[in-house]
Amino acid sequence: MTSTAAQPPFLVRHADIIFSVKTFIAGMMALLIGFAMDLPRPYWALATVYIASQPLAGATRSKALFRVIGTLVGASASVVLVPNLVNSPELLSLAIALWVGLCLYVSLLDRTPRGYLFMLAGYTCALISFPSVNEPAAIFDTAVARSEEIIVGILCATLVSTILLPRSVGPAVAARVDTWLAGARRLTQDVLAGRSADPATRDLRLRLAADAVDIDTLADHLAYDRLGGRETSRWMRALRTRMLTFLPLLSSMGDRIDALGGDARAHHPQLMALVDDVSAWIADNGIAREPADRLRSMIAVQQPTLSASSSWNEIMIASLLLRMRELVDISADCRVLNQAIAEGGRPPGAKLAFQAEAGVAPVRHVDHGMALWSAAGVFVTILVCCAFWIATGWTDGATAPTMAAVGCSFFASMDDPAVGLRGFAKWTLAAMVIIALYLFAILPAITDIEVLVAALAPPFLLFGYLIARPATFFVGMLLAANTATLMALQTTYNADFASFANSSVAFFVGTELSVISIQLIRSVGSEWSVKRLMHRGWVAIAQAAEQRGNRDRAAFAGLMLNRIGLLAPRLTALKDSELRMVDNLRELRVGLNIVDLRRARHHLSSPTLHAMDTMLDELAVSFRNYKGGAMSEPLLAKVDHALSEAMGERGAGRADALIGLVGIRRGLFPTAPAYLPESGLHAGSVAA
Fold this sequence. Notes:
Elements: H1 9-13, H2 15-36, H3 43-52, H4 57-85, H5 89-109, H6 115-129, H7 139-163, H8 169-192, H9 199-219, H10 229-260, H11 264-267, H12 269-283, H13 293-302, H14 312-343, H15 368-392, H16 399-410, H17 417-442, H18 449-468, H19 473-487, H20 497-521, H21 526-546, H22 553-573, H23 584-601, H24 606-624, H25 633-647, H26 654-668
Helix pairs in contact: 2-3, 2-7, 2-18, 3-7, 3-19, 4-5, 4-6, 4-7, 5-6, 5-15, 6-16, 8-9, 8-10, 8-12, 8-14, 9-10, 9-22, 10-14, 10-22, 10-23, 12-13, 12-14, 13-14, 14-26, 15-16, 15-20, 16-20, 17-19, 17-20, 18-19, 21-22, 21-23, 21-24, 22-23, 23-26, 24-25, 25-26
């Protein structure tokens, strides 16, 4: 089996510098090949290298593949649209705007590397079409040349990334997972110590949810990794399922510990000693950590046998111990799977303990409304820029709708794309300074290709270094791409200051028009997005109840946790908002308990099923109309009635029904008095 074991320390320590050198080599190869092929715009090959290159070889290959396909599709669209509509500027503008909007809409719905294909197909059509309206007869040659330039750049980037000191995705994913698991161990200690409600614990939980989304995105590239990619991808899917289950599971355990009350250590010393043992075992990341079998045996010994007369505390303890066993199994599996990802193969003799359901493929939040709104934003913005261009008859006016198509597509996933567009303009201005220095001070004195390569090395090596670092990735890519394209290197020097100044002004006018238009049409705030994501979560709970939990547990957890991951950075930005105090895992726990009830349905009597279905109908209505705050008392009464019926069951489904119903009750009514199984009424306190 091919190994993706950790690379030599030298390559890890100096990975940023190595990537920068590799990218510069690929960029110069692409530029020189463009010169040799006498391509009209060889500098596009250079720019493509810096746009397509990623520090990880698998990520470069995936992006390169989809960039080639997207370029060809966008070029084909321009060949179809321009010759047929060039005599009707308004119709041509409308057609291109519709194409870009449609492609962006599909791209935003496909949150995988494949989504890049659709976005690129959209703005490539604009890049080729708008500058070609004055020479429509040459559109086919222009489209072919542009495709050749981009493909040359992609091939050079992929070749160098694959052959010259390649960095595998596997170890990078394993390192990120290591960091995530370290945070998960800290969170486990805090939650099992009864600190679930602490602000620091809430922040850590949100950060882990956001990091899980980032790891998901990185893991998408595993399948394109030449070094054991498919095998590693299989282990990552299994690990992902356990990561998705971990956060709601731990949240459920924290809730059960809270339900037992502050004096749980005095009333249940053996149970709390076991909780401490599990916490210490999970926190121990050493190689010599004892196997999990002893903890599993201790959990089984303390598991109470539930009956119709079982008290609320006994039900709480049974639920806690069941979740504790799952937590131990997941922790053991995570260690095995992370090692498999880092080394490219399953460690000999390792067995997975946690029995996950079949659905392990990523399920991500998709917002058709926001995707359509973003598509409408780029559509209207392009039309506004085209109207300005047509009305003024501006010679370089094609730059405005072109920049609108590129900028609005790039920043469509942001709450306020105008912020990204202004950053785009700011760093392009910095690139303009570099370009002017080269065009009018350095390049005129260069006559040899070797000297040209040496002269280009300082800025482009710096750009590559910035791209290699996550914090400066976008800045580096903007500087590299804009410097390469606006410098417009050719085999002969032909720079003209008037032309350079005019194109620069056109660029900034186009960007500013885009900013104004997108602010009026599409920009929203973080709080608005948070409320929308929360509402989508409430609707998902209602749907789960209406479907009687008839869906895959892992898929539901993945979808809900993905939404929480999208919420996390937005909630961080809302420092003083009450929304930061919302328990985002509550709905996830309730939904998973609804799904868990499905396992019990085939073993329950008709009265119990009727009581459960009545409760689920009420729950669905409640969440459909939910605006935040406390749930209604009628729903609590129906939950308790279903509990009362389930307590009288004798079949195999009783335990699952009780655990699910208790989880729903605790999730929706955490401060309600304890349930009394004898009468179905409430009395006493939660910790009774």
